[in-house]
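Quick one - first record:
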Amino acid sequence: MLKRSIIFIDHANLFHNLVRLKIRINYVAFREVLRNDNYLLGTFVYMGIPEQLLPKKYAFIKYLETQGFVIQAKNIKESPNGKKSQKGIDIFIYRDIVELACEDSFDKAILVSGDSDFIDAIIKLKAMEKEVEIWGFYNSISHRLIKEAGRRNVHFIDGILEDIKY
């Protein structure tokens, strides 16, 4: 039986790893690999958005939207010393995962992130008897996240790069 699944992408985590590897990916192909044999209900992309959106970033967001991705955005904050940072994205993802699980909106959460911030979400999903699948990068995924999700539920983006490169 197909699992009702939702993909939750921590874009900053994905983006910084792709920059480190100096590659770009085809997001549609990436979604298809993650979907696998599941009944995909939606793909949420969580990202920080600056007040002044550059044309390139605007075009990227519009492209994702035309391909059926749902952009979940928070404004990027600037500190008094001029440093820009996104705050609250992980909490935003956590809230959506847990609320949608409580509403029985999915059978399986597919989380693209290696952050240990999601350990509590994994614990809650398991308590609700929801399946969870984690996709991260070898060099940046939390060992505690792997342990909590279970090694068989963790997959590495590094291993599929040839299939999703742009």
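second record:
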Amino acid sequence: MDYALIGCGRVAPNHIKAAKENGFRIVAVCDVDFSHIDALFEKAGFSEEEKQGIARYADYREMLKKEPLTLVSVALPSGLHAEAAKCVISHGVNVIIEKPIAMSLADADEIIRLGEEMGVAVSACHQNRFNLAVQAMRAAVEAGRFGKLSNAAVTVRWSRGEDYYSHDDWRGKWASDGGTLMNQCIHGIDLLRWMCGDEIESVYGITARQYHPYIEAEDVGTAVLRFKNGVLATVEGTVNVNYGDMEEHLTLLGEAGAVKLGGTCANEVLSWHFSDDPEDRQESVKEKTVNVYGNGHTALFADVADAIRTGRPPYVDARAGRRALETVLAIYLSSKTGAPVTLPLADVSSADFAGLFGEPIR
């Protein structure tokens, strides 16, 4: 499968690693700064011969015109995801889009429409769905082992300092990034919505900028979600841990089951109890990870490759990416208005919240 990567920044090594481990032919990489490409090749451990076989581009439009590609992944800054993804799809090429799938619901809807029109596979890169612990929880949900669900929670408590935000000027800005809920917590929000039945009735959220006066968006956010099936859920996302990344927890409670996942990216089973089999224990389900991105990219890329071959939708499709985006935007909207908001949302964009906390202090 002929593959190319657009964007060679922080998450790019996970994409290249996943492509290599799936045996894709890496045809080209694209970045406006070729030093980023050099750094990526170094991290990926490419030999000189391998490097010579990979074309470099500064403009992905030129790359798409010149290279016959089957699959492209987009790992640009968040605010550029939608434009690049739509361009890839318009060339009839399958695409994996890093989170968030877009910064506005209008762009997310256009990505979905265009993908269906062109008949290509479009996947949102919510790779934590492939964590072993997450898959175990999902299997229990699909088997009905929880019974009637009562409530759920996701908690993402990480650390991001000034060096993180100053490294790339797009970070922490409403139009190009959003805050901790959009960037760091959206994977957990995707898992929460997926586990609880997807259909949210209302959202009430509060966000704040506590310790990062030099960014535009929030560094902490909390929310209460009411699902149409009656499940109540809470969200807490923060980058205000003072010593490093603490945890990402996902908890699901039902009348016949209770499961709590943890670790840095919901990669461990911390508690597992079901009435149908009190002896069933899954606490041994733990994955070692080297960073908060986890190990799911390789499995997600494998799934997309199979979806392309068989013509089925990807396991994590564009609609899943839209649902995660909509949830974050609903929290932002509720925080801005001070009132609960009802879903589905009409078009809302992260850029709509410019000035929510005033101008950043440099």
